[in-house]
Amino acid sequence: MAVEKKAKGKMEEAAGKTKEAVGRTVGNERMTVEGQAKKSKGAARQAKEKTKDIFKH
To answer: For residue range 6-30, what is the model confidence (pLDDT) as tens digits?
Structure first.
C-alpha cells in the first residue's frame, strides 16, 4: 500500500512539473502556479510516506 502511495506521489510530482513547464512555455501564469502546487503536493506525499516507512522499521 505504501508503495502505491509513493508511486502516486511520483506521478503527481511529474504531472506538476509538466504542467508548470507547459504553463511557462505558453505564458500562462495560472497553469504555471497550478503545476507548482501539484508538484509540491506530490513531493509532500512522498515525504510523508518515507517518514512513515522510517518509523515502521
So the answer is: 888 899 999 999 999 999 999 999 9
The three three-digit cell numbers of residue 54, written as one number: 522510517
Q: What grid cell was written down for 1?
A: 500500500
27: left (phi over 0), alpha (psi -120 to 50) or beta: left
Task: Give me the amino acid identity at 47.
Answer: A
Contact 34, 24 (CB under 8 A): no
Residues 25-53: pLDDT tens digits?
999 999 999 999 999 999 999 999 888 88
Do 48 and 6 meet the contact criterion of CB atoms below 8 Å apart? Answer: no
Helix axes 29-56, 2-26, angle to 10 degrees: 160
